[in-house]
Design goal:
- The strands form five sheets. Strands 1, 2, 3, 4, 5, 21, 22, 23 and 24 form a nine-stranded mixed beta sheet that branches. This protein has a six-stranded mixed beta sheet with strand order 11-12-13-14-19-18, with no helix packed on it.
- 7% of the residues lie in helices and 43% in strands.
- The protein has two helices and 27 strands.
- The longest helix has 23 residues.
- The N terminus is likely disordered.
- It has 404 residues and is mainly β.
- It folds into two domains: 76 residues, Listeria-Bacteroides repeat domain (Immunoglobulin-like, Sandwich), CATH 2.60.40; 278 residues, Tachylectin-2, Chain A.
Length: 404
């Protein structure tokens, strides 16, 4: 084997290279590890910029940002309303009236949302006032309460004495074609003639129980009520009809979808407006339409009814809004800027409630829950007398409500 012999120059080069490698190794061992590149900042809750306007009894306040659950901030404490239970924050939208959380999930792109406080009143009291006539709606004017049945036949009592006065029939009850159901009846604020004791009287009429081509959707009889001592008469002087009840985007909510598209009406006696409202089953809302009250001389003569017929078209609508769904409309009335609407059939599926709609905010102000307090009889009549609210069911017993 050949013996390798290094020259002094080779030895020096070898030692130099070894030293360089050793120093490089030491430097590498002592240097800190290089950090991986940072990911760009990402907001884990993109909906955090949403702004929610909360409306509680007309007062408005904003909350925006995120909550601990990563959705949105809600008021720390539930709002308080005397005599009522808070029923959460709700949004009125195309899908109907839905709770705020559900709306946020359905509309992740929404930047501004309005949520309305909803209230349930179960602390009211019912004081039996008297047994005063008939099984459908009615109305109070002066000291007289008029109550009607499903055929337009009425009974009149004196509210101050609670005694029977006389009977009265809506004269259209004689016309089988008209069939005044009297589901909702109200006094208006205009008169047939100057000097009349009673303003014009409005009663809706529909063929609820008969299968006919014309089911009298959105049809109202207008009556002149006169009195000769204790004798009352109610003469049909005009018929008002909604002309767009077949419109499935305006009045109805779909083909064959609405179980009771007949509609109720009340008169805003403070502002001279006529409001129609109808439940729309598809999106579970009630739609409200406002019109100017037709003059009693308006319309064209109808051979069918023997009086002038006024047809209100979509162009005649001066205001419109959607609010909480009414499940089987019963009687209704207007008082001090609000519509009071009874509903229900006395069952768990269709419980008895009184919904109060604020025409200023165009939302449900409160719901009076009769059913939750054990009152199962079908509600029919609601109206005001001397500033107090009165209610009745099909049994003809009239109650004074307090705490509403």
């Amino acid at each position: 084997m050949k013996n390798l012999h290094k020259t002094p120059l080779q030895a020096i080069v070898f030692l130099y290279l070894a030293l360089v490698l050793l120093l490089a190794s030491c430097a590498s061992a002592s240097a800190p590890a290089k950090e991986p590149p940072k990911e760009p900042d990402v907001d884990p809750y993109p909906q955090a910029t949403r702004e929610v306007l909360y409306i509680d009894r007309g007062e408005q306040f904003f909350r925006s940002g995120i909550s601990e659950t990563g959705d949105f901030l809600i008021p720390v404490n539930d709002p308080v309303r005397e005599g009522c239970t808070f029923n959460g924050w709700w949004v009125y939208c195309d899908e109907g009236v839905i709770d705020l959380s559900k709306y946020m999930k359905l509309h992740p792109e929404a930047e501004q949302v309005t949520a309305q406080a909803r209230w349930v009143n179960t602390s009211f009291t019912m004081e039996q006032y008297g047994t005063m006539g008939n099984t459908q709606d009615g109305a109070i004017y002066g000291n007289y309460i008029l109550r009607f049945n499903a055929s337009g036949s009425g009974m009149i009592h004196d509210m101050s004495t609670r005694r029977y006065v006389n009977s009265v029939a809506l004269d259209s009850a004689m016309y089988s074609k008209f069939q005044p159901h009297s589901n909702c009846t109200v006094f208006g604020c205009t008169y047939y003639e100057e000097g009349d004791e009673f303003p014009l009287f409005y009663a809706n009429a529909y063929n609820n129980y008969d299968v006919k081509i014309d089911r009298r959707l959105g049809t109202v009889g207008v009556y002149r009520i006169t009195r000769d001592d204790r004798r009352f008469t109610a003469k049909l002087v005009q018929v008002i009809r909604i002309g767009f009840t077949s419109d499935k985007t305006l009045w109805m909510s779909g083909i064959g979808a609405d179980k009771s598209p007949y509609g109720n009406m009340v008169v805003d006696t403070d502002n001279g407006k006529l409001w129609f409202f109808v439940p729309r089953d598809t999106n579970k809302t009630t739609r409200f339409f406002c019109f100017d009250i037709p003059a009693v001389t308006d319309g064209t003569y109808s051979e069918e009814f023997g009086v002038n017929l006024v047809t209100l078209q979509a162009d005649d609508i001066i205001d419109m809004f959607d609010a909480t769904y009414c499940n089987y409309l019963q009687g209704g009335c207007y008082h001090d800027g609000k519509i009071y609407s009874l509903e229900g059939m006395g069952t768990g599926v269709s419980p008895n409630v009184l919904r109060i709609f604020d025409l200023g905010t165009k939302t449900e102000d409160c719901v009076v829950d009769f059913f939750a307090t054990g009152y199962w009889k079908e509600p029919e009549f609601v109206d005001f007398w001397e500033g107090d609210i009165y209610f009745s069911d099909f049994s003809q017993i009239v109650y004074k409500l307090t705490g509403v």
